[in-house]
UniProtKB/TrEMBL annotation:
Keyword Ribosomal protein: no
Domain NB-ARC: 1-145
GO molecular function: ADP binding
Tagged with keyword ATP-binding: no
InterPro entries membership: Apaf_helical (IPR042197), NB-ARC (IPR002182), P-loop_NTPase (IPR027417)
Keywords: Plant defense
Protein name (database record): NBS-LRR disease resistance protein NBS15
Superkingdom assignment: Eukaryota
Pfam families referenced in this protein's UniProt entry, alphabetically: NB-ARC (PF00931)
GO terms of biological process kind: defense response
Length: 170
């Protein structure tokens, strides 16, 4: 946690390079992989309408209709569940999107990426001490010259040690 998975996915989602994806949807999953809730959230995001359906099959049929023949981008953020059958149920409407559609999954677990059928995955690494200090200076001091401050080396060591390479901590 805190290494930047969601931040990276957000940058991709908002990037100009994905402007030809329509529709786009972002759903936060966490540890509750409720296929009905997730399907409904995706449908509501794509259609910009509240969904009053109470049946998974009906929600997925509407989701299929909303995606059919469209090049979509879907971000499933913070997926923890490793149950292949649940993923298979959730993904069934996505098969009707046009070629080039993408699903981006952020997760802490390599097994989740494998279950999702990922052909590519990117494992984010911790920041180096120099990168930690550079990022901290940028946000804490707005890139002003701080070399004149006393005890700056001690501050640097403490900050770098406490954040342990995690951008979120910085």
């Amino acid at each position: 946690g805190g290494v930047g998975k969601t931040t990276l996915a957000r940058q991709v989602y908002k990037d100009e390079a994905v402007k030809d994806f329509n529709p786009k949807a972002w759903v936060c999953i966490s540890d509750d992989f409720d296929v009905f809730r997730i399907s409904k959230a995706i449908l509501e995001t794509i259609t910009c309408k509240a969904c009053n359906l109470n049946d998974l099959n009906q929600v997925q049929l509407q989701l299929k209709d909303a995606l059919i023949g469209k090049k979509f981008l879907l971000v499933l953020d913070d997926v923890w569940n490793k149950n292949y059958e649940l993923w298979e149920t959730l993904r069934s409407p996505f098969m009707y999107g046009s070629p080039g559609s993408k699903v981006i999954v952020t997760t802490r677990h390599k097994e989740v990426a494998s279950i999702m059928g990922s052909s590519d995955f990117c494992r984010l690494k911790f920041l180096s001490d120099d990168d930690c200090w550079s990022l901290f200076k940028k946000h804490a001091f707005q890139n002003k010259d701080i070399n004149a401050h006393r005890n700056m080396q001690l501050i640097r060591e403490r900050v770098v040690d406490k954040c342990r390479g995690l951008p979120l901590a910085l």
